[in-house]
């Protein structure tokens, strides 16, 4: 049985609309992301803030604004991909969206989908609704004033009207002064025929629906349009505009109130009344994908390259005399654009980040507009996920690890977006740091920050000491007042502070390079002072209430007794070359200190009364003489279950952890995690109950905390942090002060983990990714699009990207071949035998990347009979990829996989097993061992042992077994099982022995098992569907993971899924003991939990494709629904748990465990 839960929700924006949904005086922005409706409002800074995000049981396919007569606010019309339509209104009493009307179209099985995506049009008067769903059909309805007996504003039934225009590219209402709305169709006259424009009246004089007969009802028909015309823009009339149509005039004039046909190379304006036409040829042809009106005469147009243009209608009075197009600048490729007012526009994107931009449209000189675009806000979008790799930052060394991905530093690196919007995205589950405010701006090179209390009577931190390279600055907090002071007690302000802290009895400690000083509460502040020996400076220091451990110039270690007025109780002069790297005096254990050494790479536990070594641990790892740079001891887990933990940040980015015995002070249980390529700074954040968290600031900041008896690492969103400290003030309780390279801000830590996205813009499509742990780099196959002299050129490259900073390493390999442009289809990282022999006279295994390609130029490929290649790449000492060998193919290579050192390639119609022998460093031989003919086109491969699962484009999956050749007999691929249903597969992976997870382009997921115990041969060859569900989003890639379940686990994670809409899901199998309770819990929640629009959960998640449709999901539990249990009120939770068995508290704990397991 299967369990599916979202890790990252859909981020692609395909639909957006502005309307007065919440209030009659305030407009809001509604976005559709997959199955979620998001409501955003504008801030004073012209940015957007999200008010709510609601799931509905359906993938949203349209949004529209409906304003019934007499209604002060707008209603929201929503359509789904299952042809369900709902009208929603905002209820101020419940502060929620409520259903006003719903419809279900039952005719869709007998019709063909429209050429463009589903479309909902509201005529300019707000009286009529037209849906364009199927070819040759308009689905129409009227908007009425709601009555007391009927809350809906539409007629009970939609009217389907047949039209003769089949291949419709665009549809729009025109502006008219009559009660008979005009509608225009941009259509293709036959397949590959001429592109034409036709206009009709939607209703006749008696307001009866038009029959759209071309001879009787068509008012205008215009040809000679741009062959690639794609959009229609209706132009409103001037207020009070009067039209005088002169019959038989020698020259007809075009007036406002017509429509503009948007093409690639020319625009055409049609005055629908005078039939006058005006054309405008574009100086630089381009492909437009979206538009929005700025005002009645200016329109913002976005093209597929991310360019923004403004089109202006030139007029003399009401007469149209021409058009003009000005290029403004670049943004993300727009899917939808919305005018938010005041020159602010929302750019919703599917292939890039959505943005809020400001354009100064008030300028009269249009040439200046190219400098006037300002990006106000960016919303992360990882759609479409073309490929991804799973990487565990903590699992790349030889240290002890309890489980794969157990370090908490696992992340998914995705290839997202397309072309100019292409990027690498790092998606991690972590803890967010919410900024509460900036305390100080324009502070450069902050070295450290310390939170103190000004007096012994203070209950809160009210003093902040900021250490800079040449000075110290002090800020005081009094209620809501924050003030910088020039002096405080006798603190040294003209030098860097290495350490500042409170001591008992109101004393205060400050350590600088020149001295250690204790100041009292006054009136005589000076209490004690110690200075290092001559010609020595203090390089590091640490203290608790009893002792201070000081390193002078890294060669002298001194222990000072605080209670005896900084009496020097012990000193240790080290040998030259073995300087002190770091020191730490813990608060949890008195009388001891920790010291890290440069040369020996050891950490020692010292007795602070005499500086004798109690225990030493060598930190040097295999082939790496790493140096300890920072040490802290913290009680992360409760004392009943564990002692304190020592954290050692190493020079190369590794953090080592040890358990410390309080009695013997020995170190044990060494473990490690990698947080970057440079050492981390460790900051202790105290918690209640005597426990602490540790914040590590580095390339990948992490919060280290205890949970469920183990230490967890969570990514934190403070990438620019250089230092931090806990700050429990009266105004900001339990907060954290974070220092960056430019400012000082105060933040609070989220209480739960969320997914966080880090972006590296590439400016080209990252089509495939493969991770090499040996090279600590990603091999990425990129496709770049360039426009040269109006023609589009495609260039493929193979590049290495460093796994931490995402910076490019080495030089990219550019694919250039005599067969024309080459497209990277797949990449695989593996180890193959090299031509070099090792000490055991065996071929050494070396890191290799295997790439499959296809050629785009059909004429050249037909002429040379080469349509693709398999290439093997190596990485040289300078980390440049180099070609070892390539093999020409008669068809494109769609996928590659490894099987016991052999290359398995999915070609256009066949699956081939190759043996590759590397004859020299830059040459090799491919030998074909076996082939298998697929039903249509192989799409994906999953290999386990000698079993290959072949996902077919139309015929689901076939299980093929490789049988090696014997003697003179060649090897062969034998089909041992198959799923015979029609299933347009997109991805497949093995999730267990004889079990596979498969996805299709309709958004379905199925689990297929081999029936190896079937009574007949036919039964054993026919695969069984053991689970199925409709995800509502096309899965592009599935990656298997291997995780051992904990003893009390309910599910076992098996795979991650990446989708077209930017979602990432975790697929798990449910252990037998939990199957019944989870299925019954899902049944209860689907019955009782309210959802927007009251749509049916079972129908939403039921399997559906062109051949088969079910009424509910089969043996699949929807984790998104289950996890909503935690958000319900206690009364509803009790209702759901009635008859379930477990108590409300048990179910709550169960769901929390399920959520944590992700």
From TrEMBL:
Entry protein name: DNA damage-binding protein 1
Pfam families xrefs: Beta-prop_RSE1_1st, Beta-prop_RSE1_2nd, CPSF_A
Compartments, record wording: Nucleus
Family to which this protein belongs: Belongs to the DDB1 family.
GO MF annotation list: DNA binding
Sequence ranges assigned to domain RSE1/DDB1/CPSF1 second beta-propeller in this UniProt record: 442-748
Organism encoding this protein: Rhynchosporium graminicola
Domain RSE1/DDB1/CPSF1 first beta-propeller: 12-378
The keyword Methyltransferase belongs to this UniProt entry's keyword annotation: no
Xref: SUPFAM superfamilies: Quinoprotein alcohol dehydrogenase-like
InterPro entries linked: Beta-prop_RSE1/DDB1/CPSF1_1st, Beta-prop_RSE1/DDB1/CPSF1_2nd, Quinoprotein_ADH-like_sf, RSE1/DDB1/CFT1, RSE1/DDB1/CPSF1_C, WD40/YVTN_repeat-like_dom_sf
GO cellular component entries: nucleus
Superkingdom per UniProt: Eukaryota
Predominant cellular place of this UniProt entry's protein: nucleus
Keywords: DNA-binding, Nucleus
All residue ranges annotated as the RSE1/DDB1/CPSF1 C-terminal domain in the record: 796-1127
